[in-house]
Amino acid sequence: MTEGVSRSILELLAAGRLSATGAMTNRPHWPRLAGELAAFLGRADLGLHLNLTCGAPLSAMPTVAPFGTLPKLGKLALLALRSGAARAEIAGEISRQLDAFEQHFGRAPDFVDGHQHAHVLPGIRRALLDALTVRYPAGSVYLRDPSDSVAAIRARGIAIGKALTVAGLATGLHRAAARRGIPTNRGFSGFSPFDPQRDFAADLEAFLIQPGPSHLVMCHPGHVDDELVALDPVVATRPLEHAALMALAPPGLRIGRFSSSGQP
User: Fold this and answer.
1) pLDDT tens across 161-200, in order?
2) What is the 3-state secondary structure (H, E, C) of 86-147?
3) All domains of the chain in start order, with CATH
4) Backbone phi and psi for residue 144, each to the nearest 5 degrees, phi listed first
5) Are 49 and 114 in contact, with CB atoms under 8 Å apart?
6) What's the predicted TM-score (pTM) here?
7) DSSP-derived secondary structure letter, 222
């Protein structure tokens, strides 16, 4: 997203505190920092963080981004649902962002997820599933499923409304992916109110309540820079997440890679 966010992620990868990260390949930092991220190939899952709501697309999208800036999530959702032209442009941008990943890595991503979970939205998920099916052998690239059971979400007690909303939007994603031979995680947490007064270390412990069999925990670390302040509403909590992740040592648990888990 920005230089500061990227530096934080690279530091956490080097410390073994992250098992995966997704790259926003339409951001201007990608070509320069891709080489630094590539140093972690084989040590962490490195994927595409499909970005349809932040900054500029890689090529013109006259319906979705008529002024050269990607829309906010709500507008994107409406366009993807109502406009065939928008869906065609989104499919093209998905391919371009995958191309940009492969161009600098010389390989497919380990996984794909979406900025603001946009990859689960109607009109977008099918285009993404189509792209993954056509481009990659079955089982070689996994897809992030940001849903979990209502019971697990309530037991964790953090950002319950947000987690339930995204889980509802993601309904059917696992089944649709499985029909195409695309693996997904089973179990997901990490939704946050982004309140700097909260103890993120304690929240991390709560995110591990009732974990799924192949559980992913989302996080948003970063070093704050001017670009981040101008670009994204999540600012004050990013250094707190970085510090908590650096200190993370969950008793009896290991931070592992999904691609090495053997999960279907």
Assistant:
1) 999 999 999 999 999 999 999 999 999 999 999 999 999 9
2) HHHHHHHHHHHHHHHHHHHHCCCCCEEEEHHHHHHCCCCHHHHHHHHHHHCCCCCCEECCCC
3) 3-260 (3.20.20.370)
4) -80, 125
5) yes
6) 0.94
7) -
